Amino acid sequence: MIRIGISGWRYEPWRGVFYPEGLPQRRELEFCARHFPTVELNGSFYSLQRPEYYAQWYRETPAGFVFAVKGSRYITHLLRLNRIEKPLANFFASGILNLRDKLGPFLWQFPPMFAFKPEQLDAFFSMLPRTTTQALSLARRRDARMIGRSRLAIDAERPLRHAIEIRHRSFMTDSFLELLRKHAIGLVVADTAGKWPRMFHVTAGFVYVRLHGDAKIYVSGYSQRALAGWARRIRSWDREGRDVYVYFDNDVKVKAPFDALNLMRKLGLAWGEPFHRPGARVPRAKYAYGPRATGGNPAWDALRRS
Of 56, 91, 98, nearest to 70 (Cα)? Predict the structure, then answer.
């Protein structure tokens, strides 16, 4: 199974470009789900969401849709995997299980200065739940501040997947790859325009790809030649029997959704009833700069100063 999507959906510069003029903001996820079978849920990275939000996102997307959920930066960036037992329980208690059959892989992104420490990573990987039942058991160990804003129920037993995105060169070692394989955790294939390491090693039964920009991170689109290269890699992973998840994160100039549609076309994938057809160029209906709704991004600051 190949799924192509985008990283997040709530971006002001997309309005009037990807999103039609006049489309209510509350219908933006619904509009995205007409075009793509999956999306990365970024809000969970910046703060704990609420059970009712996850339930709403479930209702706003069609059958077969999948959310990849980005792990909390409080765990990865602030605590740096230290003393995370309660924060990890709070994360899984926050309503994620309301996504039910639409719950896809979890993305855990490490900050650029976070170096490879085998013992620390081994302990973290051992804590990650591999089924919804394990996630529920972990969620029940939440702290008191989560009372009244938790979801402590599952509708079915399902497997859970986890993928790791690294940004420090110390991870470029066989011992890290062996650790991932030991725990059946995926290594994110991250294209960051050369800013951070790009590794193509397959360490689990699925492949998770993040495309941040071809020539300039968050800004550049992907040429037809570049997309053809990614299509060849994706077909190869698919032929090996692996599920493939691909998310475009080059959203500064509203490239992401159109690059995703064009990659779907190259792979012969169809989904939903899209408003924008594959092969469409980015409309010039609006000057597409502005702050990323999902959080700070130095690329925006540079553009706004220029």
Answer: 91
pTM beyond 0.85, yes or no: yes
C-beta of residue 62 within 8 angstroms of C-beta of residue 286: no
**pLDDT at position 302 over 80:** no
Per the document, the length of the chain is 306
Is 2-305 assigned to CATH 3.20.20.410?
yes
Is there a contact between 193 and 213 (Cβ–Cβ < 8 Å)? yes
Strand order in the sheet with 243-248: 186-187, 162-165, 103-109, 66-70, 38-41, 2-7, 243-248, 206-211, 189-191
Q: Is the pLDDT of residue 306 over 50?
A: no
From the list 234, 283, 263, the residue with the least C-alpha distance to 36 is 263
Domain residue extents for the chain: 2-305
pLDDT band, residue 294 (cuts 50/70/90): very low
DSSP 43-112: HHHHS---HHHHHHHHHTS-TT-EEEEEPPHIIIIISTTSS-HHHHHHHHHSSGGGGGGGEEEEEEE--T
User: What is the spatial distance between Cα 190 and Cα 205, in angstroms, rounded to a whole number?
Assistant: 18
The token pair at 198 is 């790009």
In 10 A of CB 46, how many CB atoms? 14
